[in-house]
Amino acid sequence: MRLRRIxxxxxxxxxxxxxxxxxxxxxxxxxxxxxxxxxxxxxxPLYSDTGAVCTVGFNARxxxxxxxxxxxxxxxxxxxxxADPARTVVVGVTRRVSFPGGDHALIRYTNSEISYPGxxxxxxxxxxxxxxxxxxxxxxxxxxxxxxxxxxxxxxxSLNATVRYPxxxxxxxxxxxxxxxxxxxxxxxxxGNTALAVGSAASGNCSTGGTTFHQPVVEVxxxxxxxxx
Length: 229
Description:
- The structure is a single chain.
- The protein folds into two domains: about 5-25 and about 130-215, Thrombin, subunit H (Beta Barrel), CATH 2.40.10.10; about 25-120, Thrombin, subunit H, CATH 2.40.10.10.
- It is about 5% helix and about 45% strand.
- The chain has two helices and 18 strands.
- The protein has a seven-stranded antiparallel beta sheet with strand order 4-3-7-8-9-6-5. A six-stranded antiparallel beta barrel has the order 13-14-15-18-17-16.
- The longest helix is centred in the last third of the chain and has 8 residues, at about 215-225.
- It is globular, with a radius of gyration of 16 Å.
């Protein structure tokens, strides 16, 4: 499922102080740590049994189990997830979906032959190590990584935004001045090595500019007792 191309309606925003986080140099992607040819990172696509193609925002851990966090609207109705477009390598199953209201889903990884690094793919075989999560502040420098347009950077323009989807209303989103294109559902929003959010909705495009809305990741981690590693 593609990122919804809707014109968002912002109902409320909370102003916060300015903070900037420098972006460290990227590193080359390491090979999978198992015999499998697959490693699933944030920014990588997963393929569902319904035909949906959704982006993993971030990998997280809860106890001995590993999860992928993605956009809830993209995971609706999907149960089994695959690592490959041919849908031959099962990677996991849907554990939770929150949409509307929120916009996130948890995919529980079940294939121990695939590695799940705590990294984000940023294009060109490069990765960014993600070491933690935080709530952003208005004015903060952020970057979004999509599998269709690569990395784009900008700033947070407001918090607690509300977007109306055909299925209902989603609350508490982060609004940025980043552009986005179809195929960016769940795309990771980062600041340096810090996970901030996953892509939810957008207006405009990367030719003329636009506005993008994101589901905060801290509240997802807190709700299910997960950590970014």
